[in-house]
Each structure stands twice: as structure tokens, then as C-alpha cells.
Design brief:
heterodimer; A: 108 residues; mainly alpha; 7 helices; 0% strand; B: 273 residues; 8-stranded mixed β-sheet; two-stranded antiparallel ribbon; 23% strand
């Protein structure tokens, strides 16, 4: 469990264009800078927003990474639901899911 | 001179970023409420606007997280988010480093506060500024209370910080306006986004309007998390404004707008002696 490191990666890529560039050009070398589990590393490498959500990433970090990956708002929300459906409840942090899969409280 | 204006408002990024997804019948009255607040703010002829926000890992992270921070620069930049995502263009916002320095020194008499000579504004400040000072022609002094990364400062410390801001504002020759941004109940950036506990919001706002210190400080973080979500932790900014203004509040707008993820709030507070 290295949620801090996972979130540090998100913090870095959200605010630093050079990290964004390296994510595209030198992914493995970039990820070597963080002490990540294989599951975390794979989730980042695949841009698996649903799994990153389940791993406990703070949504204020995750939603910008999702935007960086080109995901519209509705797709970002659905990716988190899909992540919970596939991997189970959020495992850490305070950004858990309390609504049901089909609640769609904001219509998306 | 003194504190000349106090208010609170919502700062959710959807308010600008997802404007096109909202029902205009809900959106436009909110925008009008911000405009009214802008007029009230400008009518007090402030020399600087202190914005107490709860930022979201734009500048501060869990490697070194201050409970309280105040900017001390002559200019700031924002938004840090993708301008196309937030629908607010990147710009430079004027600050006032010398004024910040004097305010910080007075705050420090009672509350240990971090200072920052660099600060990239996120939606917590940019969304309010987009409506309150859209021309970016009023010096802004950014203030942050950590409401994101637990452990969080206790509510009574947010109150003490507000008292310190008031004392600091009253100690300088400039006319100071104060706006707290955030809240209220919301579950942002999760699949719950759009869930709003209106009853809880209205009770919080009733306590804020009557400036009921004991009632405002009686929330536990456990109860807030259960009833108002992780976004509810941002009541700290509203509490600090009540402590600073000391007066009675006036709720000018409260309408839940799920696609904006919050009960959209605009309120002002009399500045009492």
C-alpha cells in the first residue's frame, strides 16, 4: 500500500507540464521515481481511472488526471463506478462511493 | 483601516466548467447572485480582497501540509487547472506582498500560519474571482485552510484564525474585504457528485447567519463526513469568516444544482465592531 506515492504522482502530473510530457514519452522511467505497488503502477500506466479511484486516490487529484487523459465529466464519473463494480469498494481515503451504481444523482 | 466587507460563496469548478450542462433557470439566478455580491463588495471600496479558500492540491500536498497559509506575492497565476476544463482563461492576478506581510505578522501573534511567495490559484479562488473581480483589477490575498488532507485543523482553530484575520485587517491602513469560499455539503469528484444534503446545508447556514459560534463549532468531522461528505470539511472557511465579521449574516442565494455538485450559496455578513 503506497497511496501517498500514488497521489504524489497525480499531484506532480497535474501541475507540471514536463511530467505530463514524460508520461507520454518515458512512462517507465517516470514511474520509477515513485515507490508504487505493481497494481498502482499498472493502473497509472493504463490510465485506469476506475482502479486508481478504488485504490483510494483523492478525487481532487484524480479528476484532473482523468481530464488530462481526455475523459469528459460523464466518462470520468462512470469510470469510477465501473472501477467499484470490477474491483470492489474504495479501499482507503475519504473519497468513497455512497450512492448506488444507477443513482446518477447529477444525471451523469 | 479595517475590515469593510465579509461574505461567503460557493467555488465548485462545475459552476463555470460545467455551465453548459446546467439548466439555465438554475444557473442564471446564481450568476446574478454573484453579480449582486460583486456590487456589494465594490460599494465598500476595498483596497484588497482576502479570499479564504480550501484549495485542492494546487500548491500544498501531504509532503508538507500547512493547516493555514497566506500568500505573500505581488502577483499570482491561475487557474492551475486546464482552462478548457474550468472554462476560465489563464491570467495574472494582482497581489500586494507588502500588505500580506503586515497581515501575516499580525495573524502570527495568535495563529501560526505558513506564508507562500508563490501561489497558483485553483478553482477555489478562480471561480469566485471570475464573478467578483472578473477584470482582475483588485489585489487579492489568497488564504488557505487545509480541508483536503486529514488530519484537519479543528473547527475552533478555524474560528481563532478568523479572529486573527479580523485583528490583522483592523491593524492595517488599507480597506480589507474578506470572502470565504467552499462547501457546503458535497461529495465532489466521486460517483456521488451531485448528492447534496439540503437540510444539513440550511441548518449550517442558519447557524452562520445568526453567527452562533457554539453551534458552528459543534460539528464533529465524523458527523460532517457522514452527513455532508468530504466536501463538508470546507465549512472551516465559512466559520473563519463568521469569526472575523462578528455580525449577522444575510443569505442571498441558496439553490442545490446537482451538475455543479453543490448547494450554490452566496451570503454576506455585517461587519460588527
Amino acid at each position: 500500500m503506497s497511496l501517498y506515492q500514488l497521489q504524489k504522482f497525480l499531484y506532480d502530473i497535474n501541475r507540471d507540464p514536463s511530467v505530463q510530457q514524460q508520461y507520454r514519452s518515458e512512462l517507465e522511467r517516470l514511474l520509477d521515481r515513485y515507490e508504487l505497488t505493481a497494481e498502482e503502477r499498472g493502473a497509472i500506466a493504463r490510465g485506469d481511472v476506475g482502479l486508481i479511484y478504488v485504490l483510494g486516490a483523492n478525487g481532487q487529484l484524480l479528476m484532473h488526471f482523468a481530464a488530462l487523459l481526455g475523459m469528459p465529466w460523464a466518462a470520468y464519473i462512470q469510470a469510477m463506478r465501473d472501477g467499484v463494480a470490477k474491483h470492489g469498494p474504495v479501499r482507503a481515503g475519504v473519497y468513497t462511493m455512497t450512492t448506488q451504481m444507477d443513482d446518477k444523482v447529477a444525471g451523469v | 483601516m479595517s475590515l469593510v466587507f465579509a461574505g461567503i460563496c460557493s467555488h465548485a469548478p462545475g459552476i463555470t466548467g460545467r455551465a453548459a450542462m446546467a439548466d439555465a433557470a438554475l444557473r442564471e439566478p446564481l450568476y446574478a447572485a454573484y453579480q449582486r455580491m460583486r456590487e456589494q463588495l465594490l460599494a465598500t471600496h476595498p483596497d484588497a480582497l482576502v479570499v479564504v479558500a480550501a484549495e485542492h492540491f494546487a500548491n500544498f500536498f501531504m509532503n508538507n501540509m500547512p493547516s493555514f497559509a497566506i500568500g505573500m506575492a505581488d502577483r499570482y497565476h491561475g487557474p492551475i487547472e486546464d482552462p478548457d476544463w474550468l472554462r476560465i482563461a489563464r491570467t495574472t492576478i494582482p497581489g500586494n506582498a507588502a500588505l500580506s506581510n503586515r497581515l501575516i505578522q499580525e495573524v502570527m501573534q495568535t495563529v501560526d500560519v505558513a506564508f507562500a511567495e508563490e501561489w497558483k490559484f485553483d478553482h477555489g479562488i478562480m471561480v469566485p474571482l471570475n464573478f467578483l473581480t472578473p477584470n482582475y483589477d483588485l489585489p487579492v490575498i489568497p488564504v488557505n485552510i487545509n480541508c483536503q488532507g486529514p488530519p484537519l485543523t479543528p473547527l475552533h482553530r478555524a474560528w481563532a484564525f478568523g479572529e486573527a484575520l479580523r485583528r490583522a485587517a483592523d491593524s492595517v491602513t488599507e480597506r480589507i474585504a474578506l470572502v470565504g469560499t467552499g462547501g457546503i455539503s458535497h461529495w465532489p469528484a466521486t460517483p456521488d457528485s451531485g448528492k447534496i444534503n439540503e437540510a444539513w446545508d440550511r441548518e449550517l447556514l442558519a447557524r452562520w447567519v445568526r453567527n452562533d459560534k457554539a453551534a458552528l463549532l459543534s460539528y464533529s468531522d465524523r458527523d460532517t463526513y457522514r452527513d455532508a461528505g468530504q466536501g463538508g470539511f470546507e465549512i472551516r472557511t465559512f466559520i473563519s469568516v463568521a469569526a472575523a465579521a462578528r455580525g449577522r449574516g444575510h443569505l442571498q442565494h441558496y439553490v442545490p444544482i446537482p451538475i455543479f455538485a453543490v448547494g450554490c450559496t452566496v451570503a454576506v455578513m455585517d461587519v460588527a465592531a
